[in-house]
Amino acid sequence: MTVRIQWLHKLLDESNGESVEIPIDSFGFGDGLRALFPDGALQFSAGIETGDGIARVSYADQPASARLSRAHDGADIALDVQLPGVGASAQLLARCAGFELPDLPCGPSDTLTLRLDEHAGTTVRATGTGVAVVLRENGERMFTASADGWQVICTDRSLPAARLAELAVLEDEGLSRALLPDPFADELPPGAWLLLPRPGPQPCRFLVRLDTPRPETPTDPSRLDGLGRPMPSASTHVRRTGSPYRPVRAVATSDGFALLAGTRSSSERGNGRFGLTLSEDGAVASLALDYNPLHIVGELGVTQAESPYKTVIGGVLMFSFKGGKSGIYGTGMGAYVVPESGAAEPSFFGYAGIGGNPGIGIPALRLTGVSVGFGWNSHIRVPEVAQVANFPFVKALADPGSIGAGSGKPVSVLRTLIGGDNPWISPRENELWVAAGLGFTLAEFVSGRAMAIVQVGDEFTVALLGTAAAEFPKGGGRKLARVAANLQAVLKPGEGEMGFAMALAPNSFVLDPNCRLHGGVAFRTWFGPSPHAGDFVYTVGGYHKNYRAPQRYPSVPRVGFDWDLTGAVTISGKAYLAFTPGAAMAGGQLAVRFHAGPVRAWCDAKMDALVQWNPFYFDVGIRVSMGVSASVKIIFVRITITVEVGVGLTVWGPPTGGRAKVKLWFISFTINFGNGRAGASNDLDWAGFSAMLPPAGNNVRVLPQAGLLMDKNRETGGDGSWEVSANGFTFDTDTTVPLTKVYLGTSSTAVEDGSPVDLRPTTWRGVTSTQRVKLTRGDTDLDLGQWTRSRRMATVSAELWGSGSTGDLPAGDDHLVKNQLLGVQFTSPAPRYGTSTGFIDEEALDFDTVAPDGSQPLDPAAGPVGAVPQRPGNVIATIASTVAASAQADARRRLAGQLAALGFDLGEVDSDLSAYARACQTAFTAEPMLVG
């Protein structure tokens, strides 16, 4: 406990108003508080003591706000949290302390105070309208919730009556003993208890056992069933008492508690029971069949829905069949959402899964479960990577009952899926989704679950979700390592976004269970229709502390470990690496802490590096510090003596410069060397800037598109021309330099206008860049003004084309310059047909009937008569050389003049037949035949 407080004090002292992240488990309860704060951390962006912190909560989309404070004597640290929305339920808060409770008949809590005390341990107090909740951890764990005269008490170990009175859970010790379930005992057994007032002329109170969700059976991780679940330990057995009676117990309901008297049935599951019941309001019908080895449980219910829907009809059915060392497990569920009259279309979804132990396959690859699901007029929310393990469909691959059946109320599975402010599945018109999943083991060493989801409608989404876990050594005995990870890959073609993410699960460790691993990896890129097309990010463990990432960038925890060696010595390490279009960053931190009585010592090492591209610029900082502190009491005064030695080095450039800072106990000094940050200019001239651009052949390109028949590339011996289709042709101009003006041919008037260009690595701003496009056919220039144009817009990097200064990292979306003109697409006019027959429809091929019918005048047996066609050769060459020759052209002109003199209207005369001379080279498939 003291180590945690000293570590937090150290963090407070070193924050210096900078952003800092506080692990929530530093307040105790192990990983329990992650039930409320799933990210496991509080983020303070403006310093711990001067700014408000935020933390994501598990039950709402809005984050909680927090403020940290500490006592003047340093004995305790308090964290005040304002929870968003309606607040946290007592059931959720109990889970933070490691207790599973049913829904209690009380309201949620919206304020929370976590207090870490050297002597009293960790205390969490939560309050709401008419409810007060307290969690304690100091050797033992306790939970209490009070409302409307009742009190729920949970403890993980037996507590003497004196201890109950000391903690003010019950009144004085004598009264506490009188209230205990066994008046002859002097301690409260572990478990969940309900303290109720007893009516009568002399009111008093009494304790009864509170019914809770079915506890987990001790398991052996080396023995897995067909769905990847640890099987019960071979030594597990049920203790049976000689008494045939069950004690009085309390069951939580929506408006209070019901007390159930004891029964004479002491039999357990598998005795041939069958039940079909209906709830008091008639809204839920339940089915239970228990004939060993077959167990079936199901519920069908009707609930109200939000407008424009009125009713949800849903059901869940689960079964298990165990025989010897094998078993089959399965679950099926579905819901039909009935709309209000004419307000919307009905919605439906269904899901089914089945698995077995030991599964199907060979040891190298064994299939342990399969599942499928689909939704019609339904939307499924794709989980973030931190939520994958708890996504109901993925979770059900390992244990079909884990998403709600454990409470004994299978219909609660549906509430898990469709309930809450941000449900996993919700009705939505014109959307359809399909999901399929697998549970598997690899080499009996790695167990995993994988699920694919395809969703169409307003957006097309393809998602791959999964979890994987491995531990070493396999089987019983002490584990040396366990690594579990959540995986997520999402593709949204319509939005132009693709991403991959991986996060280590909280139960990962290496060498020792106290050496916990944490961290995440993410990659995301934007393309095509996205307004951020061209942007990307790859990060392992997050970003540099001074980098303000855009909101769309994935947030992942630092990669590292936390190792509590002996309780007095802790070692922790963190690291990160990230690449963006504008920069790369990397860093790491190693901290060693020692605390024993009044003496504490520490050793910290930290490194952060930021590197920018184009132009090259770096900023690297390294810091190492070691110190020792001792608290000594002199007469009535306690003083603390601290000695610390630290060295910090920061280097930047080019031009290269730096600063070294040395701290020796109460003396510190700084040494500057080289150029200052605002020293010599790093601006480039044109030669330096142009070296950053792609080679000339790739910097400006002309790209043929539709209609290209042959590209006579010079690299392959051609003349560099294109042979294109007469039916139409399209080509693009492409450049890596944003364009300000685009001209056609020799014209001085721009046909397309872009934005002025900034050259960030230089001193030039508002530069005009021009592009001139010219197209020729043979020796003739074509008029591109008659061609159709479309602008080619894209996003470019601010490192080259931004307006900032060198050495300053662009923040957020400022590292991209959007809507820049990078080229034009040209499409030829529609073809203009000549004097040929053109299109011939079926009417032109019609015929007249002969009446009356006659006989065929031709003899099919007759031989050929008349002249025989010959192919003399060289006909195509003769046409090509004469059709446009001057002699033939003169003859055609004289003929046309004579016909015109006779009064014939010849219309437009095509006097230039050079195109026919060229076309005849490809128009004929063979030499023409002549008849002579």
Biggest sheet: strand arrangement: 1-2-3-4-5-6-7-8-9-10-13-14-17-18
In terms of quaternary structure, the protein is: single chain
| Structure summary, number of beta strands | 53
Strand content: 35-45%
Report the average pLDDT across residues. 78
The poorly predicted ranges are 225-229, 234-246, 262-271
Spatial separation of the terminal alpha carbons: 115 Å
Note the overall shape: extended
* Largest sheet composition: 14 strands, mixed
Number of helices: 12
**Structural classification:** mainly beta
Task: Tell me roughly what share of residues is in helical segments.
Answer: 10-25%
Radius of gyration: 40 Å
Task: Explain how this protein is built.
Mean pLDDT is 78; it is low at 225-229, 234-246 and 262-271. β17 (249-253) and β18 (256-260) form a beta hairpin. This protein has 12 helices and 53 strands. 27% of the residues are buried.
Question: Which SSEs are present, and which pair or pack?
Answer:
Blueprint: H1 2-15, E1 20-23, E2 41-44, E3 53-55, E4 64-70, E5 76-82, H2 90-96, E6 109-117, E7 121-128, E8 131-137, E9 141-147, E10 150-155, E11 159-160, H3 161-166, H4 173-179, E12 187-188, E13 191-198, E14 204-210, E15 219-224, E16 230-232, E17 249-253, E18 256-260, E19 273-278, E20 284-291, E21 294-304, E22 309-323, E23 326-339, E24 347-362, E25 365-380, H5 392-398, H6 412-418, E26 425-442, E27 446-456, E28 461-472, E29 481-492, E30 497-504, E31 509-510, E32 512-518, E33 520-526, E34 536-540, E35 559-564, E36 569-579, E37 583-596, E38 599-612, E39 617-634, E40 637-653, E41 657-664, E42 667-674, H7 686-690, H8 696-699, E43 700-704, E44 708-711, E45 722-724, E46 730-735, E47 741-744, E48 752-753, E49 770-773, E50 776-777, E51 780-781, E52 788-797, H9 798-801, E53 816-827, H10 875-882, H11 886-901, H12 914-923
Parallel strand pairs: 14-17, 47-49
Antiparallel strand pairs: 1-2, 2-3, 3-4, 4-5, 5-6, 6-7, 7-8, 8-9, 9-10, 10-13, 11-12, 13-14, 15-16, 17-18, 19-20, 20-21, 21-22, 22-23, 23-24, 24-25, 25-26, 26-27, 27-28, 28-29, 29-30, 29-31, 30-33, 31-32, 32-35, 33-34, 34-36, 35-36, 36-37, 37-38, 38-39, 39-40, 40-41, 41-42, 43-46, 44-45, ...
Helix pairs in contact: 10-12
